[in-house]
Amino acid sequence: MAWSPEGATLASGSNDRTIRLWEAQEGRTRLVFSGHSGVVEGLAFTPDGGSLFSGSEDGTLRLWDVQRGEPLRVLQGYTAALNDLDWRPDGTAIASAGSDSEVILWQVEDLGGGRPPELLRGHAWSVCGVGWRPDGGLLASSGWDNAIRLWDGATGRPLQIIGDRDHPDTPFWGLAWSPDGTRLASGTFRRGVLLWEGGADALRWIGRELPLWIRRVAWSPDGTRLVAGGDDGHVYVWDAADGRLLLQLAGHQGAVMSVAWSHRGSRLATSSGLGDSGEVVVWDASSGRRVRDVGGHPAVATAVTWSPSGEQLVSGGSDGRLRWWQLQSGECVRVREAHLGTVQTLKVSPDGSTLASCGDDGAIQLWNLQSGELLRTLRRDRPYERLNITGIRGLSEAQKASLRTLGAFEETSVGG
Question: Where in the sequence is the domain holding 390, given as residue range(s)?
């Protein structure tokens, strides 16, 4: 929200992609601005009160005439946040989900060949989750536009749209396929977990009585249990066969942002945070006992994953850093600068050697999981990608920094 300079008008932005101007004295809406295709995140009046700036997840900054409610200018951004990613089961591709409503397919074998990634368009709003069926035949993506889309895993061709027909206004968040590929689960905003079994019409609810924001869901390796974290700080474990609640684990301060099963299914790792601090907790998956607390996480712990050995955890934070934790001692053994903005998702490659991370800066980083070495950065071209500004005169340091952010580079001299 933002107040006009004279204090008579209040502007508000919303998840419904509109902006409303309110007469403060009467408490009524005077104008509604429409044009953004994503959530409106920021608003600011110009000093004279005649115009209003709005920023959105759609990657645009818009300028509006306050009196007429008309758009004056649209400034297009160069990147969109990536909310989720997943490896194709054979390790040959990575799919990512973005706030610009697009699903992107990156072919791993051609990551260095200059071939542009493939864009899958169809969602009308931010895409929050993406996941390959275990056999690689289908790719599912879930969005804030109340739809889950199924794509051909080989060609990217759109196949089907599924959702909740009785509640068509249900926004979907993270999703996950069962290990046998017959069931698809998705977290939602305020409507529990939705589970499809065998087809688009075989929909049932799990935890429907919990009006929570469930960001991520995960299946146990044997497919018998389903875990999710809520914005109430609890971790919920259900019997996947009948939806019976098996465990309700309390103790997180703040919303649970990520959940992950160990490879043997005996333990759970969950992450959360509140304010400027976070935590990663390891639980016994059978009894619900807290096995290890990684307290004092220097930022909100937004993502967590296991090493294949089960001896280490890797967490991503709201400060853009990745941290490697030794499970036995609970100590942080490695920190890496990864993203500008929040780390959204961490996924280990099928062969267990490579860690992929994505975040608010629109980039995917590939890391050697064992050493923490950065292997490659994947991103769509920015406006000045690969522009060499070495030796160009007349640019201030601030202008050079802006150009580097937009993709330009400056060579550094070696020697004297």
Answer: 384-416
User: Rg for the chain (alpha carbons), in Å?
Assistant: 22
Q: Cβ-count burial of 317 within 10 angstroms (0-12 exposed, 13-18 middle, 19+ buried)?
A: buried
Number of separate domains in the chain: 3
Give the DSSP H or E segment for 259. Answer: strand 256-261
pTM comes to 0.81
Q: What one-letter code names the amino acid at 12?
A: S
Q: Which of these, 243, 284, 236, 241, lies nearest to 259 by C-alpha position?
A: 236
Q: Which of 19, 52, 76 is the last residue of a domain?
A: 76
208 and 72 in a common domain: no
Task: Let me know how long the chain is.
Answer: 416
Q: Percent helix, strand, coil in the chain (nearest 5)? A: 5, 50, 45
Write out pLDDT tens, residues 126-165. Answer: 899 999 999 999 999 999 899 999 999 999 999 999 987 7
Enumerate residues 6+ apart whose C-beta is below 8 A from 216. Answer: 173, 174, 187, 228, 229, 257, 258, 259
